[in-house]
Amino acid sequence: MRASLMHRLPRVGSPRPHDRRGVMVVLVCFLMIALLACVAFSVDVAYLQLTRTKLRAATDAAARAAGEALSREQNLDASRQAAIDIAQSNLVAGDPLLLDVEQDIVFGRSTQQRGGAWSFEPAGEPINAVRVLGRRTRDAPSGSVPTMFGRVFNVMDFQPLSTATVVRLDRDICIVVDRSSSMKLFLNDNAPTMSTSDPRFCRPPDMSQSRWRALTRAFDRFVAALHTTPQDEYLSLASYSSSGTWCGNSNNVADINQQLSADYGDAESAMTTLSGTKFNGATNIGEGIRSGIDALTNPSTSRPFAAKTMVLMTDGNYTQGNRPRDVAPEALRHDIVIHAVTFGDGADQNEMRAVAAATGGNFYHAPDAQTLQDVFEEIALTLPVMFTE
Question: What residues pair up with 244 in beta bridges, in sequence order?
């Protein structure tokens, strides 16, 4: 009887089965809380990284817009407004990025140091750079970014910042013009080429109604636009056709008519000289590109830190030499951007479009003389910008 009773009594100190289940429930609860905290923390961290990425993109876009507007409009207020408009069009954490016009947009001067790094001086003169500060802080126009789960741990928000600085680069420019025989045709001529029997063949171009006259007016507009820009730009002139002797005048396939010079009058004089010559020949655009490269890389006249731009113009199709799009990569290897311009209905737009695309440049087609002038002016005012921060 006693032995049976002792067998039925629980041992002292050993937990009952339902007690052990209660301990596990408590432990699981604690672990679930810790797991939920980790998940909440991970979500907020991921959200923070996404917000920073979007803030960086919005800030970069605003800085680039400000730099391009400053170059194009030559006006600080226009530059500020461009930055504000682009920033506001970008959502950061679901809200437009708003900029404080006094604090978040700073103009100054950036200079390149010997080691290659750039130094930005706020309010430095002459102004060549703009810095944009993108903020989602408590004192920013857009405010801080609220956390999703961090408030459980009394972390109510986070305050990301991003800075972007762009500098407008000085340019070395070479205008490469087509001096084939067809450029002496009148604007209302339908023929794609000029016959050797044409009485105009052995004369300089007619300066009242020829295609060449339209080009010289566009060239003048280009130079006039350069005078309005604050950059220190050098200008050169090259021309191309094909080699040969016609009417007692010898033509090289391509020439550098004027090396890079800070005095735009040098290039204007070279253009005037060309206008008085009896040029003729076919259309070797590839050699024109190579002459432009030579002008822009001449160590005695080109500048190592200037952006290099080539303006390549033709009124026809390449009829000699290498295919122009195959020569364009040679320019790209020298960091030269080619803006390609076709003039008139007979020009090969597809080929010149490919030349521009190969170097990151723009393609323009001018169906008439007035449009050609407008295109040249637009290129002159389309100044490059570069991120330095």
Answer: 251
CA atoms of 276 and 254, how far apart (whole Å): 17
- Name the strand (E) or helix (H) holding 162: strand 161-168
The β-bridge partners of 239 are 177, 255
User: What's the start-to-end Cα distance of the chain, in Å?
Assistant: 92
Quote the Cα angle for 176-177-179, to 5°: 140
Q: Do you find a cis peptide bond into 324, omega within 30 degrees of 0?
A: no
Whether 238 and 256 have beta carbons less than 8 Å apart is answered as: yes
What CATH code is assigned to 171-387? 3.40.50.410
DSSP 209-267: TBHHHHHHHHHHHHHHHHTTS-S--EEEEEEE---EEETTEEE-SEEEEEEEES-HHHH
User: Are 329 and 358 contacting, i.e. CB atoms less than 8 angstroms apart?
Assistant: yes
pLDDT tens track, the chain, 389 positions = 455 545 555 555 555 555 555 656 665 566 566 556 555 667 767 878 899 999 999 999 999 999 888 877 778 999 999 999 999 999 999 999 999 999 999 999 888 787 778 899 999 988 889 999 999 999 999 999 988 766 666 778 889 999 999 987 789 999 999 999 999 999 999 888 899 999 999 999 999 999 999 999 999 999 999 998 877 899 999 999 999 999 989 999 999 999 999 999 999 999 999 999 999 999 999 999 999 999 999 999 998 878 899 999 999 999 999 999 999 999 999 999 999 999 999 999 999 999 999 999 999 999 999 999 999 999 998 877 777 77
What span, in angstroms and rounded, lies between the C-alpha atoms of 145 and 195? 72
Burial of 196 (0-12, 13-18, 19+ CB in 10 A): exposed
Residues of the chain with CATH 3.40.50.410: 171-387
